[in-house]
């Protein structure tokens, strides 16, 4: 967890995840880069933690978040899968 934030207990973490996922589901037209940035920032993950969780390098994640990356479908799926999300067409 990003050290800029205080540690959350298990109940607070679960509620935070639910709120983030609810927000993403309520706004289905967001770009992949927006969703990735929201997931990582709102769940307080560092680039290294998100990288370890997904198997995608921190450099690639950073590029996607800033709109300079061009991820493959496989990479996009790996970034979304740990949160129970899938890429779709809107």
Automatic annotation (TrEMBL):
<dbReference type="InterPro" id="IPR010982">
    <property type="entry name" value="Lambda_DNA-bd_dom_sf"/>
</dbReference>
<protein>
    <recommendedName>
        <fullName>HTH cro/C1-type domain-containing protein</fullName>
    </recommendedName>
</protein>
<dbReference type="GO" id="GO:0003677">
    <property type="term" value="F:DNA binding"/>
</dbReference>
<dbReference type="InterPro" id="IPR001387">
    <property type="entry name" value="Cro/C1-type_HTH"/>
</dbReference>
<dbReference type="Pfam" id="PF01381">
    <property type="entry name" value="HTH_3"/>
</dbReference>
<feature type="domain" description="HTH cro/C1-type">
    <location>
        <begin position="36"/>
        <end position="90"/>
    </location>
</feature>
């Amino acid at each position: 967890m990003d050290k800029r934030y205080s540690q959350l207990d298990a109940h607070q973490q679960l509620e935070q995840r639910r709120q983030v996922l609810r927000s993403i589901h309520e706004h289905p037209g967001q770009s992949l880069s927006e969703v990735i940035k929201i997931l990582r920032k709102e769940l307080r993950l560092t680039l290294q933690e998100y990288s370890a969780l997904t198997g995608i390098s921190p450099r690639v994640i950073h590029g996607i978040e800033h709109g300079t990356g061009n991820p493959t479908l496989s990479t996009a799926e790996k970034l979304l899968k740990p949160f129970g999300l899938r890429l779709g067409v809107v």
